[in-house]
Design brief:
The complex is a heterotrimer. Chain B is mainly α. Chain B has helices at 3-20, 31-38, 40-73, 79-91, 94-104, 117-147, 149-158, 163-174, 176-192, 195-199, 205-215, 218-244. Chain B has a single domain (39-252), classed as MetI-like fold (Orthogonal Bundle), CATH 1.10.3720.10. Chain C starts with 21 loop residues before the first helix and ends in an 18-residue tail after the last helix. Classes of the chains: A alpha+beta, B mainly alpha, C mainly alpha. Chains in contact: A-C, B-C.
Chain lengths: 363, 253, 263
Amino acid sequence: MNLIDPAVRAGVTLHLSQITKRFGRHEVVSDLDLEVRKGEFISVLGPSGCGKTTALRMIAGFEHPTTGRILIDGRDVSRLRPDQRNLGMVFQSYALFPNMSVAANVGFGLKIAAMADRNIQRRVAEMLELVGLTGLERRFPYELSGGQQQRVALARALATKPAMLLLDEPLSALDAKIRLSLREQIRDVQTELGITTLFVTHDQEEALSMSDRVAVMNSGRVEQFGTPLEIYNRPTTRFVASFVGTLSILKARLLDPARGVVEVATATFKNLEIPRGVARGGHLSLAVRPEAIRFGVYKGDVILRGKVIGVGFYGSVIRVRLIVGNETITIDTFNTPLSSPPLRGEDVDISIDPKSVFVMRAE
Amino acid sequence: MPVAGRSFFLLPLIATAEFSLSLRREGYSFDAYRYVFSDPDFVSSFGYSALIAACTIVVGTVLVLPTVYLVRLRLPWLRPVVEFIVLLPLIVPPIILVFGYLRMFSSSSPFPLTGTARGSDILLICGYVTLTLPYMYRAIDTGLQAIDARTLTEAATILGARPATILIRVILPNILVSIMAGAFLTFAVVIGEFVIASLLTRPAFGPYIQRVGVAKAYEPAALAILSFIITWIAMGLIQLMAHFSPNVQRENR
Amino acid sequence: MSRRTDVDGPESGLVGSGYPRPDKLSATLKMFAQKQPDWSALIGVAPFFAFAAVMMIAPTVALVADAFVNRQGQLTLKNFVDLNTPEVVAAFAESIKISSASAVLGALIGLGLALVVGRGVSNSRVRSIVMTFCGVASNFSGVPLAFAFIATLGRLGLVTTALNTIAGVDIYDAGFDLASFWGLTITYLFFQIPITITIMMPAIDGLRREWREAAAILGARSWHYWRYIGLPVLWPSLLGTLALLLRIPSVPLRRPTPSPATR
């Protein structure tokens, strides 16, 4: 994946070039290349232990890459200390200084930079207004809720006008409801300030809903880097397909490689794109998103019959699991007043649009 | 640890050990230790102090455990008061405490505890409970914090257990390790204590060491090494208990 | 149960750490104003308070009160005036000098060592040995401690003789005396330092790596971190430790003990 386009170069804030990090013999990050354009909101998404946090810590300067270079605004910072890099960072655990008031926390970076007290006060007030905490200047961290603490942390990170904002799972420690509202608030603030942002998360929903582009990482490598839509609709690797969103995987057999005919249980799909190197009669896996399957019989779709084994109600969406042959398929259907969801134990017909199926090599 | 620190702490021990072994002119021997062990006063005073330490541990636990438990769960507003009381022994020196006892419980007072040996023993135990209160409290409090006493209590209550039953059958077994930690520390303190025991004229180990220290030359060095070893064993046992603790909570870093 | 009760910060050993928590005190006051006390729970804690009142507070108060009363039962300050003899005053002054010197030195050196161990030693085996040793050494006092130092730095102590034979320096000729100010201070340090390490270690473990990192990324150098965050956070525990160390320790070095001199 080579995205380096000289025309965009000028607008690049962060450029990671061939970054590798080893702890002893263990390679945590391998050959990481990443370009983040000015003002972009980029998420690094991956399971725990995939190297995303190590990558972020290298950008911040808490770890040093074993090989490779880190450029921020065209300046090589690979060997600089964190305090020389002019970055802002928000931590999962808030990391507010417990001995300082909200105002002192937000103004800390400015104080270190020897800004005049009056200017610090003005900037602190500005920042607190930005995150909606005006009036809490004199509170201490232990007097704030988790959501408030994280907003103070955000204000503190932004107060010094950093070149870039790093967010290390900032929402993971919060309640579901606050997580949602803070998610929007972070994105609003980011858009308002136009600050280049790198957001590390294991939550695909956060990554997809907030970001301009998402880098999906797995065992130290970037598997795919693209817009949320690309990542979800056109995953390029098996890992991305299964990690992002829900997938039902069906065992299939290839009948005709030339015309893309594949047999699944009792039905056949036609005109599928077949991965190279699979012979006639070979095994394949078909992956389908839950929202790409409909109840009932639709013309042009592939029809399968299955038995309902579970029905889950998620408000606007109803998620139904059914058994087709030996496999479990998950289907999402909208909850409308007119439709009634199928019952457990019921036999139902489902329709799959062949165009929404990903074909992968069998495992 | 830097070398200077290490030698500051090790040299006195080495020197004492060396001295305790040099009772004979012609070379090193364990004679000093042999004399110590064959001294009937050594055995009786150590036995006495060990017994007093055991009583102190029991009384301290009975006093502290229900209090910490109830304060944690049902009387959180009392917590600052209890925390303050528990710090008092660290502020008030033992000597003030014991002179206070001598005055309050003298033979002319309504409770002439100092008049009899048994009464003095009780006073001694009370004094030691007070002295070791901070350690016992901190140990038990930490233990209760680690096991989520509230949830355990609620679960036991739903199953129909009464408060006393919960404390003895549910809470106590779960924090036994913490109590043991407090107990060993208490033991170490009581075994070496001198001021209270000598002012109450009890035949304890601390005053015995003091007496030997004044009268002999090599035996005190042997006693110093022995008391160091005894404390070391007590502390080692705490570490060992902590190691086998079922609910070791570590801060994630 | 709307009041937050289980959200205490990291507990720091014997001396409760923490920052001003006005809500705690006001909660106590509020409770007194509320109507329904939890009687059965109060009965449960009654023995503890009874013990504290009779065995801790009453004797202290009685003794302190005694100090202000003369033989006829009248209030007086004469007891203190009587203490104003040159010998008593000198003894007090010397005592206070030594205990404050050893307390301050013990707290500072102990803090330094605790930081070295707490932040530098990641090997849990080594750490646990150091902590166990500190537990032992902080209980090492009285005659055993006196003997240990007489055997080390006494007139014929191991170090004294070693320095004399190896370096040709007689520290006693140079003015050193174990029963002097510095001799006693050094002796006291033997348990003051371990006490400090024992008490400060939980507080040092409570210093979160993220604080340091957050400070660094905001442009702070290491000394900024210690000046504005590290030391202020450790300060309450350090003050508590100092208060504890200031208690005058009794080590009978001055007593005419038969020492290694008899060897």
